[in-house]
Amino acid sequence: MKIFLGNAFSLQMLDLSSGNTLVIRPVTEEEAKEVAKLATSCVGHADTAAVMSSQLGFDVLCQRTNVALAEEDQLLVGQFSGGRLPEGATTLPEGTKLSWILVTVVPKQVMQDYDNLAACSGASLVKYNEYFAKVRQ
Q1: Is the pLDDT of residue 122 over 50?
Q2: What is this structure's pTM?
Q3: Looking at domain 3-106, does it have CATH number 3.90.850.10?
């Protein structure tokens, strides 16, 4: 499992040849700080990296790279909203905000197990629920 820190999510990050299931959930700034410590930066703009650095409390590298998300990989997205980030910004301008969203690629086997269990009358969804409980942590 790899963890990335970025400022956007794109379908180009996925292998679309066989389909994907994603869990997309907002996280608090405190959760974002913990996840970001484990992440490889793929933030492509220096100003965005500087603002993220001020929010997270540590240096976020500006690294314009292509990301290919595989099963169980996660992407922590810092979603800027409320206008355009001014050139040279190092903190959030008034009236703007940075929201944190965690994108997780669900393993195909988990979804196949879920589909098989759901097809059975009265079947337990324990594996499915256990996996998603782990993802929510």
Answers
A1: no
A2: 0.80
A3: no
